[in-house]
C-alpha cells in the first residue's frame, strides 16, 4: 500500500471551485509540500490556483498515477473507476451516498469495477488519507506534524477531530486513514500495513465494529507483536451499539467479546478519547516501561495525586536503595523529602532536578520516572525543562508540567527536546500504566 | 470573614524588592484594580513602584486595616502579629517555617498572639487568598476571571496550578484560599463562609486530610445543603496517604471513611484533577440536571462515544415522545437520524441546530441536552455556537466542541455567551453525571 501513503503521483477528481472538497484536498496537498506530480481532473477543464501555484485541470486522466482521490457524485464513481482503472494503483473514494444510505448496489458495482482493474479502494464515504512522511496530505482534514503515530479511524469526523486535537497535544503522526464504508480495504489491512511501516512507532485505531472477526484478530495479533496498538472502541453500551449500527452500519456486537479479543491479541484498549491521546503520546516516546515508578516533584500535593493514581492503576512506588537515598540526602536541602515521591520543594532549580533525575535513574529498583513541575515563582519553567532533557537517564521519563499558561514556555522547550507533556499528574500516571502493559 | 475576601484596606509586610513575594503580591493587588487602601510596610521604608503607581513603604503600620498579608521570616511573625494585632481584623501568613518543618512551638506562639488580639489567621505556610468579586488578589498566584467557583486548597501549589488551568478551561472564580497549616482557620470555616457567600455558586475543595472530622462533617453538610461542594481528596492510596502525611503533616486517615463521609454529607467527590475542572464548569453553569439526556451531534462517532459514557455513568438516553420524533422528521433532511443520539450530519447549520435543540428541549421526557459539534468544513463553528446560545431552551445544555484549534472561534463565542466547552464527548458526559448527583 505504499502507493497510498508514499505516492509519487496523485490525481484528484471533483470540483475545483474555492471551498469544494477536491479543491480543499488539492490545497492541503500543495501546502503540505508534496513533491510528486499532482493532477487535478474535471471534465470542464480550466485552471485552478492554490497556494500560489496554477494547475491545469485536465478533462480526463491520461497518464499513470499511484493514487486517485475521488470526490465526485456517488452515482458516477463506478464508471470513473472503470475508466481510470488501467492508470491507477489505488483510489481513495471520499464521495458519500453508498451503503451508508442504503445504496448497497452502487457500492458493489464500485468494488466490482475496482477488482476488474486490480485497483485497491479506500472508502467510500471517507475523509481521506495522510502519508505524513511522504508529505502527502490527501484529505481535507487539518495537516499534522510528522511523528510516529498512525491513526486508523472508522469515523471520518472522529479522525479529523483527533488530528486537530493531536496537534494541540503535541502528537506527531506518521499516517492517517479514514476508511469509511471499507468496501475493499479495511481496518485489518491497515493494521498489517502500519505494523511493517518503518515510520510508525504506534498505531491508534478507532472502531465501532468489524465485519470479519477472525481476520481482525489475526491482523491485530500481528500488529501488536510489532508495535503498540491502541484501540478506542465505540458502541460499548447498549444504546451506543445501536447508535453505531445506524451510523456505520456495522454490527457492533457484544462489547465483552471485543474486549476479550483486544486483550488476547495484546492490544491496548483505552476507555475514552483523551486516553487515546495520552497512550499515543506515551508510545510515541517509549515502547514500554516497568511498573516501579519514582515520582519527582517540586510540590507536595501534585506528588500525592500522582502517587494515588499510580497505585490505583496497579503500578508500584519504587523502593529506592539505601545508596540512592543517601546520595539524594547528600546534595538535597534538608527540607526536601527523599522518600518516593521525592519532593524537591518550591525552589528546586535546574541543578536539583537534573541531579535528582540522574541519581534516581541509576537505581536498579526504579523502572521509570514521573517528573512533576508546578511553575516556581523565581525559576522559569524552561530551566526545569532543560534539566529534564539534559539529564543523563536511559529510562522512560514521563513529565507533568502543570498550570497551562504559566508553563507554556517550558512545555515548548520540552517538546523541542522530544518530550511530550501531560497536563495533570493523573494523566501522566495513566501514561505510565499504558506503557507498563507492554513490559 | 468578609474582611478577608471583600476587604476595604490591606497592609502588606515583607520585602518589596523586584521579584520578592510581598512585591509580587502587591503587584497582583494593584494590577487587579483593588479599589481599597493598600499599605506596604517594611522597617526599611523607602518607596516601591508597581504597575505605574508609586507607594510609600511605611516603617510600621499606624492605622487600622481589614487584612494584613505577611511574608516576613517565620521567626518574627508572632511579634509582628502582637504589634499590629490592635489594628487588623485578619492576617494571611504566607511565611513558611512553622509546624510543617517541625517548628510547632513557633506556630503555637503565632496563634496565641492572634487570639490575644482577636485576629483571625489564614496560614501560615500558604499561598494567599483571592476575593475576586472584591477585586482583591492577595496572592502571588495568577489572577483569574470573576465567576462562581470558590476554590479552597490545602496545597498552595495545587491551588496555584488549578487557578492557571482554570483560566484555560474558562472557569470563573469567586474566591481562592490556600490555607496551609490551618493554624487557626481551616477548611470547615471556609466551607461555611462560602456556603453563604452570594457570589459563590459552587465550592471546590482540595484536601489531603482534616484534623477535626466532626466539625468538618457539619460544615460539609451545611455547605452541600446550600450549593454543590466538589472535593478532590489526595492521599487515597497507601503510599499517597504516607506522602500526604509528610507533606502537610495531616493524618490522611482511611480513605474509605472519607469517601463515606463525603457521600453522606451530599458532597461530590471527583477522582482526579481534571474532573475537578469539569465538575466546577458544570456547576458554575447549572445547579443540577436530571438523568434523561438527549444527545445532538453533527457526527456519528462522537455521538456514540458520548452515548457509551453516559450509560456507563448511569445516565439514560432519553426516550423522546412520538410528537418530538415526528417534528424532528418534519424539518430534518432524511439522512439525519432522529433517534437519540440525534445525528444532524455534517452539513448541519445554525438553523438545524437551533430548531433541533428547541424541539428536543420541549420534550418532557428529556431532562438535559448534550450538544456535540465537530468542525464542519463549510460552516464556521461560530454559527453553531450562536445557535446553541440563541436556542430557546430552559434545560441544562452541556456542549462539546471538538478539535482544538479548529473550533477556537466557536468556543470563544460560546464562552462569551456563558457556555463553557468540554473538550471531548466523554468529559461532557461526565459533566452531566456530576450535575445529576444534585437532582
Number of helices of chain A: 16
- Biggest sheet, spatial arrangement of strands of chain A: 9-8-11-10-12-13-14
Mind describing the biggest β-sheet of chain A? 7 strands, mixed
Helix content of chain A: 40-55%
Query: Biggest interface in this structure?
Result: A-B, 73 and 73 residues
Task: Please render the helix and strand layout as text.
Two copies of one chain form a homodimer.
Chain A: H1 2-5, E1 9-14, H2 21-31, E2 37-41, E3 47-50, E4 53-56, E5 65-71, H3 77-84, E6 88-93, H4 104-117, E7 120-122, E8 128-131, E9 136-139, E10 146-153, H5 156-169, E11 173-178, H6 187-195, E12 202-207, H7 213-226, E13 229-233, H8 238-248, H9 255-265, E14 268-270, H10 273-285, E15 292-297, H11 300-312, E16 316-317, H12 322-331, E17 342-343, H13 350-362, E18 368-373, H14 381-390, E19 397-401, H15 408-416, H16 425-436
Parallel strand pairs in A: 1-2, 1-5, 5-6, 6-7, 10-11, 10-12, 12-13, 13-14, 15-16, 15-17, 15-18, 18-19
Antiparallel strand pairs in A: 3-4, 8-9, 8-11
Helix pairs in contact in A: 3-4, 6-7, 7-9, 10-16, 11-16, 12-13, 13-14, 14-15
Please describe the structure with a list of short key phrases separated by commas or semicolons:
7-stranded mixed beta sheet; alpha/beta; homodimer; Rossmann fold; 16 helices; 439 residues
Amino acid at each position: 500500500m505504499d502507493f497510498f501513503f508514499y505516492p509519487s503521483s496523485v490525481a484528484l477528481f471533483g470540483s475545483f471551485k474555492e471551498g469544494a472538497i477536491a479543491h480543499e484536498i488539492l490545497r492541503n496537498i500543495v501546502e503540505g509540500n508534496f513533491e510528486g506530480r499532482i493532477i487535478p481532473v474535471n471534465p470542464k477543464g480550466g485552471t485552478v490556483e492554490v497556494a500560489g501555484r496554477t494547475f491545469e485541470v485536465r478533462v480526463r486522466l491520461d497518464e499513470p498515477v499511484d493514487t486517485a482521490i475521488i470526490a465526485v457524485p456517488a452515482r458516477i464513481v463506478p464508471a470513473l473507476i472503470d475508466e481510470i482503472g488501467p492508470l491507477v494503483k489505488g483510489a481513495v473514494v471520499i464521495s458519500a451516498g453508498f451503503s451508508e444510505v442504503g445504496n448497497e448496489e452502487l457500492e458493489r458495482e464500485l468494488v466490482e469495477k475496482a477488482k476488474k482493474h486490480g485497483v485497491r479502494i479506500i472508502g467510500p464515504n471517507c475523509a481521506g488519507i495522510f502519508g505524513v512522511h511522504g508529505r502527502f496530505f490527501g484529505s481535507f482534514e487539518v495537516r499534522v506534524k510528522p511523528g510516529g503515530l498512525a491513526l486508523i479511524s472508522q469515523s471520518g469526523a472522529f479522525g479529523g477531530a483527533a488530528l486537530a486535537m493531536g496537534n494541540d497535544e503535541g502528537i506527531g503522526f506518521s499516517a492517517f486513514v479514514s476508511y469509511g464504508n471499507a468496501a475493499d480495504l479495511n481496518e485489518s489491512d491497515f493494521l498489517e500495513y502500519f505494523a511493517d511501516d518503518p515510520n510508525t512507532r504506534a498505531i491508534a485505531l478507532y472502531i465501532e465494529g468489524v465485519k470479519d472477526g477472525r481476520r481482525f484478530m489475526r491482523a491485530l495479533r500481528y500488529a501488536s507483536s510489532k508495535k503498540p496498538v491502541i484501540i478506542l472502541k465505540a458502541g460499548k453500551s447498549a444504546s451506543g451499539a445501536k447508535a453505531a449500527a445506524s451510523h456505520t452500519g456495522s454490527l457492533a456486537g457484544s462489547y465483552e467479546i471485543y474486549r476479550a479479543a483486544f486483550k488476547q491479541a495484546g492490544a491496548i484498549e483505552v476507555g475514552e478519547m483523551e486516553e487515546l491521546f495520552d497512550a499515543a503520546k506515551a508510545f510515541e516516546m517509549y515502547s514500554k516501561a516497568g511498573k516501579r515508578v519514582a515520582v519527582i516533584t517540586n510540590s507536595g500535593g501534585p506528588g500525592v495525586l500522582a502517587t494515588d493514581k499510580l497505585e490505583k492503576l496497579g503500578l508500584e512506588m519504587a523502593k529506592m536503595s539505601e545508596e540512592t537515598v543517601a546520595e539524594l540526602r547528600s546534595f538535597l536541602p534538608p527540607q526536601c523529602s527523599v522518600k518516593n515521591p521525592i519532593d524537591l520543594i518550591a525552589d528546586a532549580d535546574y541543578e536539583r532536578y537534573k541531579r535528582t533525575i540522574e541519581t534516581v535513574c541509576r537505581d536498579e529498583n526504579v523502572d521509570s520516572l514521573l517528573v512533576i513541575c508546578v511553575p516556581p515563582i523565581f525559576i522559569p519553567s524552561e530551566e526545569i525543562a532543560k534539566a529534564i532533557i539534559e539529564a543523563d537517564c536511559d529510562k522512560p521519563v514521563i513529565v507533568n508540567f502543570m498550570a497551562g499558561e504559566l508553563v507554556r514556555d517550558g512545555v515548548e522547550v520540552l517538546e523541542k527536546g522530544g518530550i511530550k507533556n501531560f497536563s495533570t499528574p493523573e494523566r501522566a500516571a495513566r501514561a505510565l500504566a499504558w506503557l507498563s502493559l507492554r513490559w
